[in-house]
């Protein structure tokens, strides 16, 4: 009986160990998020290219550039008219209120082919009041190398309206910049060697050694051992197959799902707007916070001084200023430790501070070591 009991006891202990191991593995896996490689990284060399050009918008309802102040608008129109055989007398400076000089920008997508339409953005360069209702004339768009990659032309779409008369002015949204959907046609493609190279480099959007290792491990497990190798915290090198479709191979890589670790604990503070954003990795230690308000009030009261009767004095109006400083008593709050984002938000809301005051409180918590996160001020 003893050997049998011993065997049963060993089996029970082994089963309990397996359950504990599975539970611990499940808890560890639960703390990881799942992301596609497409959302984590991009293929090196597959990128957009910025284009820029100088053009002229016509057809404005008297809201264009004042050509007597913006000289280059008149020069542009004269140069444009000379291409159609129209020559103005020397020294002539035409006064045109329906024309505006603009800068045209666009983003050329990767693998864009000639004839493909792309969107363009048109922005006023002179002192025009509005580009609403205008038409962009044929404008070449150049890249950083000075070559022409697209030609833009079309009617502007302005998301605003405005009117002025008799010194009064009403305006909704911005009137000096607009877009032309599909307003440019690609004339030249940008060559890319990403598809012809022997290796493919995946560049992570955020540098992280753990993510780079997990991306390489996932590719090797799903597509073949030894295909991927992490070079550093940002780049994973993948060996391209000798046969088969490379497009299908890259598509299979981008569709793979990777278990990524939680992001770095970070609190983003926008000092201009007073916005405070924190991610789920932020932890808060127990601390005590005293918060008080200081207000300064300046009030001005007019005082009239009358001269004596039958005197040659004049009535004088003076101002009396009253400055008052008031400081509310600070209350010491006990902020408990929090490991969950909901607990941290609840503890910070208990302080009753405004967004601007919360910025100073978070900075003080970080200095005291109670805020376990990176504090970034933008």
Using brief descriptors, characterize the structure shown.
six-stranded antiparallel barrel; signal; Gyrase A, domain 2; 3 domains; alpha+beta; four-stranded antiparallel β-sheet; 378 residues; structural molecule activity
Strand fraction equals 35-45%
**What letter string, H or E per element, gives the SSE order?**
HEHEEHEEEEEEEEHEEHEEEEEEEEHHEE
Number of domains: 3
Q: Assign an overall shape.
A: flat
Question: Structural class of the helix and strand makeup?
Answer: alpha+beta
Q: What does the main sheet amount to?
A: 6 strands, antiparallel, barrel
Low-pLDDT segments, ≥5 res? 8-30
Instruction: Provide the helix percentage.
Output: 10-25%
Question: What's the number of helices?
Answer: 7
Q: Can you list the strand order of the major beta sheet?
A: 3-4-5-10-7-6
Query: Could you tell me the radius of gyration in angstroms?
Result: 34 Å
Mean pLDDT: 80
DSSP strand tally: 23
Terminal Cα span:
74 Å
Signal peptide: 1-27
GO biological process, one term: bacterial-type flagellum-dependent cell motility
Function: Assembles around the rod to form the L-ring and probably protects the motor/basal body from shearing forces during rotation.
Subcellular location: Bacterial flagellum basal body
Structure description:
- The protein is α+β, with helices and mostly antiparallel strands and 378 residues long.
- It folds into 3 domains: 49-85 and 93-160 and 172-186, no CATH class; 195-260, Gyrase A, domain 2; 266-304 and 316-377, no CATH class.
- 25% of the residues lie in helices and 37% in strands.
- The chain is built from 7 helices and 23 strands.
- It has helices at 2-30, 37-40, 71-82, 209-223, 246-255, 341-349, 355-368, and strands at 33-36, 41-43, 49-58, 100-108, 117-124, 135-142, 148-155, 161-165, 168-172, 177-186, 199-204, 228-230, 235-239, 257-260, 266-270, 275-278, 283-284, 287-291, 294-305, 316-327, 331-335, 371-372, 374-377.
- The strands form 8 sheets. It has a 6-stranded antiparallel barrel with strand order 3-4-5-10-7-6. Strands 2-11-13-12 form a 4-stranded antiparallel β-sheet.
- The N and C termini lie far apart (74 Å).
- Residues 8-30 have low confidence and may be disordered.
């Amino acid at each position: 009986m003893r050997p049998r009991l011993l065997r049963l006891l060993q089996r029970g202990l082994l089963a309990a160990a397996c359950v504990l191991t599975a539970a611990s593995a499940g808890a560890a896996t639960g703390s990881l998020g799942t992301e596609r490689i497409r959302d984590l990284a991009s293929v090196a060399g597959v990128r957009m290219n910025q284009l820029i050009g100088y053009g002229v918008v016509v057809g404005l309802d008297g809201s264009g550039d004042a050509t007597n102040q913006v000289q280059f608008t008149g020069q542009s129109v004269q140069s444009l008219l000379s291409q159609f055989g129209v020559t103005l007398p020397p020294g002539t400076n035409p006064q045109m209120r329906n024309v505006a000089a603009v800068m045209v920008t666009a983003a050329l997508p990767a693998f864009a082919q000639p004839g493909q339409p792309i969107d363009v953005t048109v922005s006023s360069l002179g002192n025009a009041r509005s580009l609403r209702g205008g038409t962009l004339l044929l404008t070449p768009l150049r890249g950083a190398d000075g070559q022409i990659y697209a030609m833009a032309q079309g009617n502007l779409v302005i998301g605003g309206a405005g009117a002025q008369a008799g010194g009064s002015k009403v305006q909704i949204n911005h009137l000096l910049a607009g877009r032309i959907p599909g307003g440019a046609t690609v004339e030249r493609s940008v060559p890319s060697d990403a598809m012809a190279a022997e290796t493919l480099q995946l560049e992570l959007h955020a540098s992280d050694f753990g993510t780079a290792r997990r991306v390489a491990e996932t590719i090797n497990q799903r597509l073949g051992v030894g295909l991927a190798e992490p070079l550093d915290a940002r780049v994973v090198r993948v060996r391209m197959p000798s046969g088969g479709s490379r497009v299908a191979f890259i598509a299979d890589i981008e569709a793979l799902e990777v278990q990524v670790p939680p992001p770095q604990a970070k609190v983003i503070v926008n000092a201009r707007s007073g916005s405070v954003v924190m991610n789920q990795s932020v932890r808060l230690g127990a601390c005590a916070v005293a918060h008080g308000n200081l207000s300064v009030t300046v009030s001005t009261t007019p005082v009239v001084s009358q001269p004596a009767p039958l005197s040659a004095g004049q009535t004088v109006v003076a101002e009396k200023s009253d400055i008052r400083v008031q400081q509310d008593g600070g209350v010491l709050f006990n902020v408990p430790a929090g490991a969950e984002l909901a607990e941290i938000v609840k503890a910070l809301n208990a302080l009753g501070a405004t967004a601007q005051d919360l910025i100073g409180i978070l900075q003080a918590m970080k200095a005291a070591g109670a805020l376990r996160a990176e504090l970034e001020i933008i």
